[in-house]
């Protein structure tokens, strides 16, 4: 009997505790006793854990205790889960205590056996103690075993005799398993030393797995028996496990779940539902809605029914989001059944951006007795997961909703039911999950599967069928994963030196690396030893030192830390840690102590959230995590700080991640099952389906689904049929759906190749999406074949009597098929363009320690990882043998894609074993609708623009043209822009001469040679720290002896520089570029011919120097300037270098230098930062002074003479330049806009410019009355400043309008009568029937319509003035003067109308004088327009921010402007900084504007100083201006300083402190309020209703020292004040009166002020009324009136 092999005490305990050993236990003990490795394969609940441990424990209890404490650890247990490790530690207490008690009863004394756990949560003191005082049994995880082996603590493993690997099937087929296999071989190498016990015996525990031989080979490794290897005995007794799985659908029709009754209706009872299926037991929420719009409410109700009918239930979902959502919903259902009144989730707003993640109503889950379930997944805190597990085992919690976190062999107690929501990912996964129920030996495992949509019916049915029969998918061990190898090599070398042969021997003993070739291994070692250019990507620097003479590998400094902090195989997803905020209570929810390297940091960890969800979250939002609700208090760059919010509604979280595709083997089985079902008669098909475990509604749904598909397409996809379906989508484009059951691992590479082929053949981007059930292609309508093309039917009748659509896509079936012999090559050719390859390369580079964590204790954002990986890929792609590049390809082709299955499928299609059926359907078939659901989800957040437009968006601005516009390639000003101090600092850093960059060790000197070489001894010494500088010659000699450095002589150099040192990796480069003779003994790998050796040396020179002339590089390498210049120009053409005037003159710039592009970016960034630091931001109120002065606005009441500014026509021309393109009310143009800028403005000044052809005007839109929006343009640039082509209004429709446009289309300008004649000459009505010929009135009306639509202009402003003078306008205008004398007729000629009485259209009042013409054509090039717009905005505003975009009417086009501004900044033509407070960080300014802005800030500062003095003197409170902390000073009436223009000196009167008052039209771009600045609040916000100000036509604003004081509505009828200080109001009123009178703006009548009538007794005594009357307003029955002068 097998128990006789155990000691009496162990045997007595076992026979007392168990009836007999299970078959698995007996077989395992026999195998282990024989000395071999053992693999125990048995279903869950077979006693595997005890089978593995009992033999080892018996040896510990009865064998001798080692004398050396460090040898005490003799049993090592490795678990893939921390939770499983803790579970096993707890379960070991029973046999240890039991055996000890049995020994005591037998009078025996047994030694103490200590059990320890080593995971990431182990405290530091226990970790340190392990090396000298390890426990007898160590329970750990693969990652922790790796860390122990990569530290001094590995001494504590020197006595291990037995290694138990639990759940080996869960890791063997993954890279984590490859990592563990190497760790086990490292452990054996540690044990297989002279003083060691020899390689350990391995015992593997596995659930049912296939093929068993592959797992056995993985467990045992490939160590030969003669070298200490052991055979692997597979213990796999016949399974007695009974698995019962039922597939349940809670609605009669999944296609229309809204018609299904709720849980209290007549639905078939759920399996085991018991009394809970009746109406009497249904709670208040059960029957209140008999129809549901989605299947989910029905699933939730039925899950609650099942939970209520069982003692302990485990519910599985396929995602963390699903677990959180389902937990929240079933708790809400339970609460409603208990009588709680819950709010409608749709009425809650727990987050500012709820997205589509859903809302939980906030059921309090702190007390397990009050809820039905809690969530359990890997993104929750460990403490919360432990609490949930404990409460479920103790029976306090009825159910747990989990992901795969509870899939492995954790003992969850007496579970009696497992519920799977959604089809299981695989048969093996389904068995693991259902096996959690009935975990005890001999118990039945019961499970219920709920498909959630029709597409899951077949997978659920077939998976359940194969679960019952135990038909698992095959598992494959990865072959030679090089990223894992690189990591383990660094870890091995970090703790001790290895020869290459010894390391290779140990590595090849691991099963995944049994076939590792020498070339592949040496390629990995080359990468780790620094063969690839680290100067292009820093993380390619050497990790190990390879002494090629002795073939010994040793560690570089930092290798140990790198291996420890960045080790492991689980990809970093950049998740945000969620922690309790400081001082926050836990809210009775367990949290983890935050640890880093085993040290507690003080934080309390709640869990982790996806990066995207955090980006959508805001402070104050509430969300659920782990069934609890949390409120966000702060979001930092690497964590979210929260406080508990129990019972509060919360947003449901989501996470993004990859889901494994369906195995091809399972897909083939599904296809065969469908084919067999459809071949049966209806009764037989139903019996077959119900025999698979489907309940009546599930069977109905599945059979209906299949028959509807057959009716739609004629054939149903199966293992022998692939259906290609085509139909039009909602937009009229073709969708092609390839229906196949073979799974995503087959369909993904197939879709990749097909999309590339269609793109190549037809020149269109085809949106392709793959899924487990097929491929969806969206073809643009341009692929229509036409009436005679398309796919011809193959004679197969289509279901439902359909006929194929002849007007099909111009696509052949051959386009969708791949030659079987070309599959691998075709997939490999397209792989590099796929997103999957980029992701796999990033993950592989991370595992290979090429993307290490810069701060191991901080979160590394996923976007940063992608950015760094993209930079590495750019470098690696130039080296075809780069190991990680090869590994990413291997992983995609072997692990992610099933190219072998795809090849087999294509071969079956070619041979006819699989038939391809083509069909055109009027609408998507049922199968297609299921696929399209995933297609929509994939592209839902891809943006509105089609793919081609998204690509074009990045090319909107032509970079070459933009550089030309900036002048001389955009680099002409860089020498002046670069800060000399920044250049010198950067050169010292990249050149290695900065003190902090100097070498201090031999290894760092080796880095100096790699980064800067070749160098002379003196040049190396300059780059070495002074205390060790004298050791440089010795260090160089040591590097030469180890073949890591070479000493060479370079011809063409002076004798004192001829002898130089270089890294051995540069041997071939120096030989081929400089003709250097290499010393003897250089390894052959470093003498290979390189494609561009001189280019490599010059690129290195550029990367380690600032801007340099070609002569400097030529002098350094002893080459001719012409040779060097040719190579430098080639590198410049490739974009690697930049040429131009780059070096500041003070640093010896020659005017023609080269610089590395990255170095130049650094120099620009630092120089710009230095410039920005010189400018302190000014108060926003300063903008109210700066902007009018920048635009040449003259303050009112000041003398206009005596200044140096422009006058007369020149002043008008300058104003037009700044105002070009701004739409302004025509009535304001010559009343307020130009008079404010031009002293003594007269209309004749503008007429002179228009008559000379220098200025034109354009209409934008007609306003109420006889007014409209017009803009002025310098003719030379009008094509650039006219309205954007996309913003042009539509051409007015009508025959007269068309005739006028035709008449003008030939060019030229025409008087009205001549234009009328041209219209008459060409006039004809529709259909050839002449209509009444339009007269001059009709033509003139059409002309004005075309003016306001932006198509026609006039060469004079006379007609516009006449238009304004014949009706009401926004601003009062003066009528145009008339000439009374007409030209008299002579010699019988007909008379002309008097010029003083221009032709007037009686209907519109518009005049027709002047010559009419079309506006110039708009420039279409977006780059030219963006450059012109940026230049115009800078000229107009001086300081430019995004806030002006709406006021300027450019909206989304500011993005293009921003690109130009950024380029201008790089060229030194503008400055970016934080110039004005509270206007955002992206502010651009012309250099002169910054100085002017600071000078204008003095105006506000002085006003505030005087205000302080005035307040101290007890004066009345001044105005509460929007950004003033103190009120301004009182002013006397303004008088007389000189006007200011850009570049003019500060007027003396401004410096003396007189008020600076301007009166502007509210729409004037010189008014910053309502554009760059927000409208300020009123001085007393609570005193009554008043309307908001606006930039409206007809409104005026009065600014005093930059602050808005008065806002007058159209005609002055209503007035808003923003100050209650009498002195401020008097100054503003005086300025208003002065402006109205000098500009001849007519009379003003103010009837209401601040929302109240002004004629009440109280109002007339208000400060504003007194100010107005004091300035000249008089009281009239209509209000306060200012009469025109």
UniProtKB/TrEMBL annotation:
Residues 29-227 form the Helicase ATP-binding domain. It is an enzyme of class 3 (hydrolase). SMART domains: AAA, DEXDc, HELICc. Residues 259-293, 787-810, 1508-1547 are annotated as: Disordered. InterPro entries: AAA+_ATPase, ATP-dep_Helicase, DEAD/DEAH_box_helicase_dom, Helicase_ATP-bd, Helicase_C-like, Lhr-like_DEAD/DEAH_assoc, Lhr_WH_dom, P-loop_NTPase. One of its GO terms (biological process) is DNA repair. Keywords: ATP-binding, DNA damage, DNA repair, DNA-binding, Helicase, Hydrolase, Isomerase, Nucleotide-binding. Pfam families: DEAD (PF00270), DEAD_assoc (PF08494), Helicase_C (PF00271), WHD_2nd_Lhr (PF23236), WHD_3rd_Lhr (PF23235), WHD_4th_Lhr (PF23234), WHD_Lhr (PF19306). Residues 298-490 form the Helicase C-terminal domain. Residues 1525-1545 have a biased composition (Pro residues). This is ATP-dependent Lhr-like helicase. It comes from Cellulomonas oligotrophica.
